[in-house]
Specification:
By secondary structure, this protein is α+β, with helices and mostly antiparallel strands. The chain is built from four helices and five strands, in the order H-H-H-H-E-E-E-E-E. A five-stranded mixed barrel has the order 1-2-3-5-4. Helix 3 crosses helix 4. The protein is rod-shaped.
Length: about 190
């Protein structure tokens, strides 16, 4: 504590900011890994902002103004100011370097979370995704929509069994292959 008290006021400020934000950052990180991490955003009007920073395609600053990013900025600002204090003698230049470092840290985290969000995907299956694909006839398909058969189709790495009908005048036997022409509703395919 004596060492801290012997520091110059600006140096104390940088070390204080670095220490406090490091502690907050560590707490946020631990809470995030155990599933309790939440972020608070500044509401920018209708629709608000998303907290992950992955939605900047409309030219706005969505996701940049959050508590997490404030902590990230102050973390970079505090540590850069503390570490470069003895190296950079001019206070305005030291503040500029610290601000730029803080902004770069925020941009790095926004880019990282944006990349992570691109990895997530909707795993739900929609019949329309199967149109145009080949399918294996699992149960025979009666001719001229006289009844339903079942086909197996692989979409996005998973196999789905779906009811199917055909407009063909001939029955399609089990073991054959068909092309999916259309999705009829939510649980029926038209094949040929």
């Amino acid at each position: 504590m004596e060492y801290f008290m012997s520091l110059e006021p600006l140096q104390k400020l940088f070390w204080s900011i670095a220490g406090i934000t490091t502690l907050i950052f560590l707490i946020q990180t631990i809470l995030t890994f155990i599933g309790l991490g939440a972020d608070t955003d500044i509401d920018a009007g209708p629709g608000g902002m998303d907290s992950m920073g992955d939605s900047t395609e409309d030219g706005g600053l969505h996701g940049v103004f959050s508590f997490r990013n404030l902590v990230n900025f102050l973390l970079g600002y505090g540590w850069a100011g503390a570490l470069f204090y003895n190296e950079i003698q001019k206070a305005w230049l030291l503040h500029t370097v610290a601000i730029v470092t803080g902004l770069l840290l925020v941009l790095a985290f926004v880019a990282m979370f944006g990349a992570i969000m691109k990895l997530s995907h909707d795993g739900s299956f929609k019949l329309s995704e199967a149109v145009g694909m080949k399918a294996y006839v699992y149960l025979r398909i009666p001719a001229s929509r006289q009844g339903r058969g079942i086909v197996q189709v692989s979409v996005k790495g998973s196999v789905h069994e779906i009811d199917a009908v055909t407009d063909s005048g001939d029955m399609i036997p089990t073991g054959g292959y068909v092309t999916i022409k259309e999705a009829l509703g939510e649980d029926l395919l038209l094949v040929e």
